[in-house]
Amino acid sequence: MISRVLAADVPAHIGARIRVAGWVHRRRELKSVTFLVIRDRSGLVQIVLPESDVPEETVVEVEGVVIASVQAPGGAEITEPVVTPLSEPAQAPPFDLYRPNLNATLPTILDNAPVALRHPKARAAFTITAASVAGYRAALDEMSFTEIHTPKIVETATESGATVFGIDYFGRRAYLAQSPQFFKQSLVGVFERVYEVGPVFRAEPHDTTRHLAQYTSLDAELGFITDHHDVMAVLRKAIAGMVGSVKTRAVKALNLLEIRLPEVPEIIPEVHFTDALELVGAPADEPDLAPAHERALSEWAMSEHGSEFLFVTGYPMRKRPFYTHPDPARPGHSNSFDLLFRGVELVTGGQRLHRYSDYLAVLQDPEPYRGYLDAFKHGMPPHGGFALGLERWTARLVDAPNIRQTTLFPRDLTRLSP
Amino acid sequence: MISRVLAADVPAHIGARIRVAGWVHRRRELKSVTFLVIRDRSGLVQIVLPESDVPEETVVEVEGVVIASVQAPGGAEITEPVVTPLSEPAQAPPFDLYRPNLNATLPTILDNAPVALRHPKARAAFTITAASVAGYRAALDEMSFTEIHTPKIVETATESGATVFGIDYFGRRAYLAQSPQFFKQSLVGVFERVYEVGPVFRAEPHDTTRHLAQYTSLDAELGFITDHHDVMAVLRKAIAGMVGSVKTRAVKALNLLEIRLPEVPEIIPEVHFTDALELVGAPADEPDLAPAHERALSEWAMSEHGSEFLFVTGYPMRKRPFYTHPDPARPGHSNSFDLLFRGVELVTGGQRLHRYSDYLAVLQDPEPYRGYLDAFKHGMPPHGGFALGLERWTARLVDAPNIRQTTLFPRDLTRLSP
């Protein structure tokens, strides 16, 4: 059997007899001729034959001769074909995959995700996701971080009891980890610099366009820092790595979705939380930024600094988790940051407490945190880290209004399948 | 402040005043002089000073002058030091981290994982793990696979109801995914070739040295195959990539643990299940291989083929999951394989059913599988894949008798913390 040629490579074989394989993306029957457009992982190729009754989405193998054709995609098409089905005749999807856009409601798309994701534009977002993660890892590897894999089943509902999923663990109560926070901090004591790409779980009781019950968190943590600015410098490199990787590894997806990638400035502009409140005209005693504030700040960063990224630093201690390091110079404020990107909070991070006595002082009952605190009892350097939501990143890159559009199989308040 | 030099780079700075930072690995007090050995992510460096009471594991920063010293590790040491603690004086760990080996029982080591993992030999295993995963991804990226991230919370206890963890999902019953099997198959319909590195969950009721409640699964799935041999060829490349990456990225760990890496033959030897039974002298009607059989087969592969890897193919259909593709030529047998490595099953894989009607024929009640079956209803190519247990891989590489030694924070029947 002659070896398979990918659709995108067909124009390089004009005059030759080749074999392609893929899904029947589109069947167009004219009076005396039928066109089959075949879709594979590389793109589309047109087949010309007298007639065909193979339904769209059926998987076929085609042997035929390549000829130049100005009207065909890529400037070539396959004639004199022998079409062999590899699957049964496919049932028609509830939407046309061959149209430029998926014309269906979001619930219909999500209910039919295995087939909706085949649409070239739906699929393209996940090519960008994969390229982003590859760039993230490469950037951190370059800075001598070690990749880790930590437990997703934990004994203690750690960061906030209200939004955690309970598990029956061999007859005991356990929880799904909301983040690898405690593990990555402990492992700074082992590797100094660690990262993890993995699922995190939040029993979010709200139905929003930017929260899910499971998402992919890009976590990092590093030791021997002076303060949160060292963490921000690492994050800046990680994001530059992500953008660079998308630029080189996801060229087709970028073109198909007509995406404009952001510039990552050498120094991402930074504004202190108190100044941020003032900029958006919020009362000085607001403890956090509302979504509208984040949008306004992003606009300000663009007009003032020409940057799509903005660090907001120094969030009030009372709105950050117990392990947050205070700002020694500004009582009530912390050595923490959020990174805003195109109007939303993309990353949360900061310096953490590293002295055992500091943890004992902030934890009312240290007993549930015994395993975690062990690391600090036995010596930990000043350290900090961050967490970036992967699906949210891609949503902003491709301008998807709902995070479900950049999640393969989203999980939320009502959705548990497919 | 002068910038930090890593311990391993100190010998390159003889005569200079430098700054190092790390943990006090070892303090040796002689009559008139004290040696502090400092450990950082790169290695060890010796400090000489008149006296010091800094306890071991305390984190310190040291400024001093580098001199050549034949007795010191790396041939250099730091004199005239100014030692500044970065943590509180550390409490003593329940074992000495400076000894060549961790002299403690496995339960003590696991109970104190955050500090036990700091031992250079404990840590080294996880450097090898990280290098392995990087090699796995690079090999699959090279073969144009797309990385995916799939749900760990699922509606249906899919592969075997007995070993699944239940979750309370917003008042509904849900389960932790035992594998990304259904998702990766569905996504062959989208990307043709996919892989995932992520946690999988098994409520294993047995306490063994090679099973855990959570482990890291390296999954892959690819379409347009002829049969399981195409999958085995991809797996062979993935494993060669892993070994190659360990060889280049984990040199220090390999030397420290005195590891002999396996050769990955161009063609990994293969034996059919029925012949395997005969080779180990088991009755011809045995439905599966016992651990002792796997050990015997590995020995046979070494003596007969000089290979530490062996494919066993054609397992009986009745012992494989419902989505397994039968061998058209041998009734009762399947187009499946296991890969044995150094006496244990490391990988399970095979060709899957790809016709909708085949699934309807094997599933007694297709309703719980509706979302999964959608992919097949709308056309799927012949495909197959595999899953490799990451912790088991490293355990065999470093010759760890218990998989808990190559898992950062293991989860089992009794262990849920740290």
What would you note in describing this structure?
Chains A, B: ATP binds at residues 202-204, 210-212, 345, 389-392. Chains A, B: Residues 140-418 form the Aminoacyl-transfer RNA synthetases class-II family profile domain. The structure is a homodimer of 418-residue chains. Chain A has two domains: 7-85, OB fold (Dihydrolipoamide Acetyltransferase, E2P) (Beta Barrel), CATH 2.40.50; 114-406, 2-Layer Sandwich (BirA Bifunctional Protein, domain 2). Helices cover 28% and strands 26% of the residues of chain A. Chain A has helices at 106-111, 113-116, 120-142, 181-191, 228-249, 251-256, 273-279, 291-305, 356-362, 370-377, 390-398, and strands at 17-29, 34-40, 43-49, 59-68, 76-85, 146-147, 153-154, 166-169, 172-176, 193-201, 214-223, 270-272, 309-313, 336-341, 344-352, 383-389. In chain A, the strands form three sheets. The first copy, chain A, has an eight-stranded mixed sheet with strand order 6-10-11-16-15-14-13-12, with helices on both faces. Chain A has a five-stranded mixed β-barrel with strand order 1-2-3-5-4. In chain A, helix 3 crosses helix 5 and helix 4 (181-191) packs parallel to helix 10. Chain A is elongated and about 80 Å long. The mean pLDDT of chain A is 96. At the A-B interface, strand 1, helix 2, helix 3, strand 6 and strand 7 of A face strand 1, helix 2, helix 3, strand 6 and strand 7 of B.
